[in-house]
Structure of Aminopyrimidine aminohydrolase:
Amino acid sequence: MTFCEELYAKAKHIWIANHKHPFVQGIGHGTLPKESFRHYMIQDYLYLIDYAKLFALGSVKATDVETMGKFGEILHSTLNVEMDLHRQYAKKFAISEEELENAQPASSTIAYTHYMLQVAQNGTLAELVAALLPCMWSYNEIGRELAKIPGALEHEFYGEWVEMYSSKEFGELSNWLKDLMNKLAIGKSEEERKKLEEIFLNTSRFEFLFWDMAYHGETWPEDIR
Ligand SMILES: Cc1ncc(C[n+]2csc(CCO)c2C)c(N)n1
């Protein structure tokens, strides 16, 4: 069993809950209220700004030029491919640049990004990768599952989302990160492997909270905004 297979077995119940989440199913069946998707797009844009920094930190912590370069490549594709999708959606959903710039991150967005940045800044490269992995891997799994639903790829609003995350390029990125996680886990102590598992489980849980936040349009309560 590879280390990633072990991680997957431990997190399976969380991943199943993520796949079944009404937000995820709503994208696939085209039934998600547009208001929820609009809220998600804004929060995800804020999320990606912080998330992208993990790739920069990955480059800093890498110990070989090839890994450094790959993290640099993913940083570039997050800022210019993935976030471009968000900028296109912002136009489609009448989200102005001003609204995007001035948006306040929800509490779950802050909790998720700050947790990952904390791990990335204070931990080893293996810990950084364990924090990143559920995000890349689960989106690709979700994208590929949703792409099987008839009409999902052609949907007027959500089709492009399904297309991006089910794409071959995203699959390759996710496989690269899984391979790296497996390599970095070799020779690690039982204690360190436990720590990697805990980080992986936590960011898998944060993925769930993020879907939930988006679905319910969660923001800070009005009187304390
Ligand atoms: C909450 C949340 N989790 C995961 C992703 C997906 N994602 C973020 S960066 C990246 C790789 C390269 O751009 C992928 C697949 C997201 N957008 N939002």
In short: The pocket of VIB is lined by residues 44, 47-48, 51, 74, 77-78, 82, 135-136, 139, 170, 173, 207, 210 (CB under 6 Å). The first helix runs from residue 3 to 20. DSSP finds ten helices and no strands in the chain.
